[in-house]
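Notes from hallway chat w/ T.B., transcribed later so I don't forget. T.B. wanted the structure written out for a chain they're using in a teaching module, and asked if we could keep both sequence and structure tokens in one place. Agreed to drop them here.
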Amino acid sequence: NDLVSLNMIRDLTINGGTVGFTIMLTTPACPLRSQMEQESMAAVMQVPGVEAVNVRFDAQVRGDNRIAGKLNIPVKNIVAVASGKGGVGKSTVSTNLAVALAQEGAKVGVLDADIYGPNIPMMFGLSGKPRVENNKMVPFENYGVEVISMGFLMPEGEAVVWRGPMLHKAIQQLFTDVRWGELDYLIVDLPPGTGDAQLSLAQSVPLTGGVIVTGPQAVSVSDAKRGATAFMRLEVPILGVIENMSGEIFGSGGGERAAQELGVEYLGQVELDPRIRIGGDDGRPIVIAAPDSEAAAAFRALARKLAARISVMNLAPDPELRII
């Protein structure tokens, strides 16, 4: 369908030979933005009498309607970032995806659900305890992203030794007992594996979808496939697979192979770059610390693809209810 049929053209103005209009995107991170601008300008310039075209952009992110009904929080989409094993850079990917989406103009939050090993505060350069207003925690904010983590609530270095029910309650409270702003995307950084945290999240939170992070090695891919299979069994849509730390040292191609075998989208890869590790330690994600680097460009491309996948998913009609 064309942009007019999709109701994406707004604020049409004609001033002499100049035509102006706004293209309403379904995400600020739309990867087809430049193509839409060029093709719409070319089409309008073919109209007799048109001498110039001014194209503006705005965005209205479509949301997952289940979230407000079940959690009563002003969040449009909840995206879980998971991996089958630790050490593949899942928290690094979560952090840089969130900041990249915010740089595109989206309203973004990060919820650190890795209760046993919360790394998100360090990666965002944040510390201290969140203030409380009207019995709700106010998330920290940095780089345009709202952030909450169990790491803010525990003494530094202290271990959490909880059984499943306590973990379930803690994760739920990080959603409902926090004064989230009106967010387009809430990125949830999960612990590695397929244990209680993943089960609790899938059962209590309406997830828009999950992103699987893997390294390029065969052992990492094998574990990532297990993580994806767990999501599928819990009826959580897989938004795609990301290969992290790709390059000569660890190899490449594992993420794409995993996506093909699972029958899901391959979002892309991020090359191994020491500056990513340095930025994580210093609380400056590479999309902030080295915005012109290849790794930063890769994260921005991944963020746009992820946003596009979510938009397409939310545009799809709801599946018909089955009567058993």
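Follow-up for T.B.: Residues 9-59 form a domain with the GMP Synthetase; Chain A, domain 3 fold (CATH 3.30.300.130). Might be a good example for the class.
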